[in-house]
């Protein structure tokens, strides 16, 4: 039975990073007994709620199934349970992974230096799906007191910054841009790293 005496979970939100998504909430405090939680999801095209593997769990978070398509609108709900009492369901705003996730920075695997270039090997921050169009945006600059930044864009995971001076320190930062249905999703910038070009 739904009980007005058992408060519903508060601060219910979705946290999503690189398409790994969690439903989170604040714990419900009661005088005695341990509160458990049940969470469900459904998509806009289905009326039926499905379990998320979080039924009567003491945890205050639950993973959203990764098999759900990124473009789908996902509806979620969670409630508190204590013995045979249940709180009201709490529904956070609808969640669309493609629009509501945060993309992290790409990984830099290696940097090869030559006298006039840096060759950067990178990998995306998440496993790409078939049909993904990813671009890498590289800003780079000579490590001086008043650096002028330049941009380089490419869709390959091997990027070359060319026309550099020999034996000079250059810094770069890289981020990913994913083409999505409604435009683009821009990822977080990687912390800059600096390398000295080789002597000619």
UniProtKB/TrEMBL annotation:
<feature type="domain" description="Fibronectin type-III">
    <location>
        <begin position="102"/>
        <end position="200"/>
    </location>
</feature>
<dbReference type="InterPro" id="IPR003961">
    <property type="entry name" value="FN3_dom"/>
</dbReference>
<dbReference type="GO" id="GO:0004896">
    <property type="term" value="F:cytokine receptor activity"/>
</dbReference>
<dbReference type="InterPro" id="IPR050650">
    <property type="entry name" value="Type-II_Cytokine-TF_Rcpt"/>
</dbReference>
<dbReference type="InterPro" id="IPR013783">
    <property type="entry name" value="Ig-like_fold"/>
</dbReference>
<dbReference type="InterPro" id="IPR015373">
    <property type="entry name" value="Interferon/interleukin_rcp_dom"/>
</dbReference>
<dbReference type="GO" id="GO:0005886">
    <property type="term" value="C:plasma membrane"/>
</dbReference>
<dbReference type="Pfam" id="PF01108">
    <property type="entry name" value="Tissue_fac"/>
</dbReference>
<dbReference type="Pfam" id="PF09294">
    <property type="entry name" value="Interfer-bind"/>
</dbReference>
<protein>
    <submittedName>
        <fullName>INGR2 protein</fullName>
    </submittedName>
</protein>
<dbReference type="InterPro" id="IPR036116">
    <property type="entry name" value="FN3_sf"/>
</dbReference>
């Amino acid at each position: 039975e739904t009980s007005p005496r058992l408060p519903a979970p508060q601060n219910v939100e979705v946290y999503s990073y690189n398409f790994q998504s969690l439903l989170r909430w604040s714990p419900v405090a009661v005088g005695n007994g341990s509160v458990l939680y049940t969470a469900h999801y459904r998509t806009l095209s289905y009326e039926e709620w499905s379990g998320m593997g979080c039924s009567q769990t003491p945890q205050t978070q639950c993973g959203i199934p990764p098999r759900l398509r990124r473009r789908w609108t996902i509806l979620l709900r969670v409630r508190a349970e204590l013995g045979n009492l249940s709180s009201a369901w709490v529904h956070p705003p609808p969640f669309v992974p493609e629009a509501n996730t945060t993309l992290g920075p790409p990984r830099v695997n290696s940097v090869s230096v030559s006298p006039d270039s840096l060759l950067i090997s990178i990998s995306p921050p998440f496993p790409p799906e078939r049909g993904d169009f990813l671009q890498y945006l590289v800003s780079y600059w000579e490590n001086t007191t008043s650096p002028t930044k330049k941009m380089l864009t490419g869709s390959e995971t091997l990027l070359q910054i060319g026309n550099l001076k020999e034996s000079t320190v250059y810094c770069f930062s890289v981020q990913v841009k994913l083409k999505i249905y409604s435009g683009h999703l821009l990822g977080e910038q990687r912390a800059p790293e600096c390398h000295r070009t080789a002597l000619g």
